[in-house]
Design a protein that fits this description.
The protein is of the alpha/beta class and 400 residues long. It has helices at residues 60-72, 107-115, 124-137, 157-160, 166-172, 181-195, 246-255, 259-268, 271-276, 282-290, 294-318, 328-333, 335-342, 354-359, 385-397, and strands at residues 2-8, 12-19, 24-32, 40-45, 51-54, 87-92, 103-104, 143-147, 201-207, 211-217, 220-224, 323-327, 367-368, 377-380. It folds into two domains: 2-147, 2-Layer Sandwich (Nucleotidyltransferase, domain 5); 196-380, ATPase, nucleotide binding domain (Nucleotidyltransferase, domain 5, 2-Layer Sandwich), CATH 3.30.420.40. It contains 15 helices and 14 strands. β9 (201-207) and β10 (211-217) form a beta hairpin. It starts with a strand and ends with a helix.
């Protein structure tokens, strides 16, 4: 089955055309700067070289039309026609409490995704636009929605509730939802395979420009660091993470900032970028650390400390831990970050092998970096959210 996976952002569309169940990536790419004069699409066939086409693209409908043109183009594509496309899988950020699993998209599902838009206005809107664009261009092709929040619907109420008046939960849905669920589901399943036992206690660290940590008990999420929105939890690229909410009202009063201004600061000007004054990219920050930049050093220390603190908390939640998993851009590639996070966690049975950690990228980027005698395994597992979306799409559509 040929499945097109779409991830529609506010000004970008990522796509991957996958032949399932073999997980053979036929073509992939990104369309960026939607609505701007310098918009472009960058793509590649299989593992080939990337090609870029600069073209002004006004909106998501035009963008998806261009993706269809690329994947069926004589020179650019791998499909003879769109008739070869069997299904489309969409990443949808927020499913609220409505969706605990992936679903076939119909009018009722679209309505419910629309109702969740108030919880993620920057994400669910573009996700819906992508669904509507495919419906217009390929009305007969089945579509599946895969939700970032679905995997975390197994979290118990005492972990997802905030200690606010209960009616705010009942009337407005104010609670912890968690995100990166598709990634946490994928890497925890891979870790369970490596451990060779279903009854397991796993802590998954998805750390990149955005980051979250989850406690996984016997394959089910029981706690996660992100909350009502992706702002809560870790120090991230531009997001502040955990913050005393009184700081918000203090800034409103002392600086006269509007809700929009505060939201912009917390989401786009904070985190590693705001602390370091250098960049939101850890590679740039590590280089600045080596050059003696004190703010960059502080940013690194705070990032590592926050991750370590959540690991300790989730070891308590799980009453122990069998495996710690690193994934995401930083988790998969930043050797020093992994080493520094694991330092001082030997009391949990976590012992990193520095040589294995340093050599990992030479061995394909996936593996066990714990010492041979370590009671807890430390895995680096590259995430594959697109595969999970394609797999869910295959499983749902094949039953039609």
């Amino acid at each position: 089955m040929k499945v097109l996976v779409l991830n529609c952002g506010s000004s970008s569309i990522k796509f991957k055309l996958i032949d399932m169940p073999a997980n053979n990536v036929l073509e992939s790419g990104t369309l960026e700067k939607l609505g701007l004069p310098d918009s472009f699409i960058k793509f590649k066939k299989g593992e080939g070289e990337k090609t870029q086409i600069d073209k002004k693209i006004e909106n998501h409908l035009e963008g998806i039309h261009l993706i269809f043109d690329v994947i069926t183009g004589k020179e650019t594509g791998v499909l003879g026609s769109l008739n070869e496309l069997d299904a489309v899988g969409h990443r949808v950020v927020h499913g609220g409490e409505k969706f605990a699993s992936s679903v076939l998209i119909d009018a009722d599902v679209i309505k419910q995704i629309e109702e969740c838009k108030k919880l993620a206005p920057l994400h669910n809107g573009p996700n819906l636009t992508g669904i509507e664009a495919v419906s217009k261009l390929l009305p007969g092709v089945p579509q599946v929605a895969v939700f970032d929040t679905a995997f975390h619907q197994t979290i118990p109420d005492y972990a997802y509730m905030y200690a606010l008046p209960y009616e705010l939960y009942k009337e407005d849905g104010i609670r912890r939802y968690g995100f990166h669920g598709t990634s946490h589901r994928y890497v925890s399943a891979k870790a369970i395979e490596k451990l060779g036992k279903k009854e397991s206690k796993i802590i998954t660290c998805h750390i990149g420009n955005g980051g979250s940590i989850s406690a996984i008990l016997n394959g089910h999420s029981v706690d996660t660091s992100m909350g009502l929105t992706p702002l809560e939890g870790l120090v991230m690229g531009t997001r502040c993470g955990d913050l005393d909410p009184a700081a918000v009202t203090f800034l409103q009063e002392s600086k006269g900032w509007s809700v929009k201004e505060i939201n912009n600061v917390m989401n786009k000007k904070s985190g590693l970028a705001g602390l370091s004054g250098v960049s939101s990219d850890m590679r740039d920050i590590e280089a600045a650390c080596q050059a003696g930049n004190k703010q960059a050093q502080l940013a690194c220390e705070m990032f590592v400390y926050r991750v370590k603190k959540y690991i300790g908390a989730y070891a308590a939640v799980l009453n122990g831990v069998d495996a710690l998993v690193f994934t995401g851009g930083m988790g998969e590639n930043q050797v020093n970050i992994r080493k520094n996070i694991c330092a001082g966690l030997s009391y949990l049975g976590l012992e990193i092998d520095e040589q294995k950690n340093a050599d990992l990228r030479k061995n394909g980027g996936e593996g066990d970096i714990s010492k041979d005698g370590s009671k807890v395994r430390i895995y680096v597992i590259p995430t594959d959210e697109e595969y999970m979306i394609a797999l869910d799409t295959l499983n749902i559509v094949s039953k039609l």
